[in-house]
Amino acid sequence: MSDATTTPFINPPCEDVVQIHFADPHLLLVDKPAGLLSVPGRHPDNQDCLISRLQEDYRDALIVHRLDMATSGLMVVARGKASHRHLSKQFQQRQVEKEYRARLFGEVAAEQGYIDLPLACDWPRRPRQHINFSDGKAAQTHFRRLAIQDGCSDVLLMPHTGRSHQLRVHAAAIGHPILGCEFYAHPQARRLSDRLLLHSSRLCFIHPDSGEMLDFHSPPPFSAAGSIG
């Protein structure tokens, strides 16, 4: 019987392509498919990832921020060190506007709300995070309900902070885990989707060279057709 603590995890291959929405000498704006790592994993068989694919055609591509492997959607990638410094500073200073679309288990009663729950790594069960009021780091998320269909809720999530697994933990904490979430959803919510229904749908930031405000949108593949009623 193998030891789960020492057996390496090999990610299944991701056949979906990376869509490039915008490219210039300073940055790339791309759509990462669900199931693809943002950066290489530790195991030699987990080297396929967003940045390695992009560097095949854009040798100066540098990662600025990450999405979980299970999360799809928009990412901005720097081209060159100067752009990397500029974009990284925007993320560090929380100048980048980020929005995510998600489908949650159950019918969210509130039309909108604010979740303020500190997060820390759950070391015995890492990479899981947990709510920790004594040692956790501040984590805040605004949400707005968009639609209810088939007993589930489509929501817009607007994180103020960018903690690991923040949106997953916060959604579960209010009793409405994200469908398909392997870490924080109960079995019924996990079974309702074969992927995590979380998508980076909007990024708004300042172009590192021109100073122009760029605002990109990407519709989620799982948007509900119905409306709240």
Summarize the structure.
Its EC number is 5.4.99.28, 5.4.99.29. With 229 residues, the protein is an alpha+beta fold.
Description:
The chain is an alpha+beta fold. The chain has a single domain (19-217), classed as Pseudouridine synthase (2-Layer Sandwich). Helices cover 14% and strands 32% of the residues. The protein contains four helices and twelve strands; from the N terminus they run ββαββαββββββααββ. The chain has helices at residues 50-55, 81-92, 166-173, 187-191, and strands at residues 19-23, 27-32, 61-63, 72-79, 97-105, 112-116, 119-121, 129-131, 140-149, 152-159, 198-206, 213-217. Strands 1, 2, 3, 4, 5, 6, 9, 10, 11 and 12 form a ten-stranded mixed beta sheet that branches. A hairpin with a 2-residue loop joins strand 9 (140-149) and strand 10. Residues 1-7 and 225-229 have low confidence and may be disordered.
| Uncertain parts | 1-7, 225-229
- What is the strand content? 25-35%
Outline the biggest β-sheet.
10 strands, mixed
Helical region count? 4
Regarding CATH, which class? Alpha Beta
Q: What's the CATH topology name?
A: Pseudouridine synthase
- Domain count: the total is 1
Shape: globular
The assigned CATH architecture is 2-Layer Sandwich
Number of strands: 12
**Alpha-carbon distance between the termini?**
52 Å
Radius of gyration: 18 Å
Structural class: alpha+beta
CATH homologous superfamily title: Pseudouridine synthase
Average pLDDT level: 92
Helix coverage percent: 10-25%
Written as H for each helix and E for each strand, in order along the chain, the element string is: EEHEEHEEEEEEHHEE
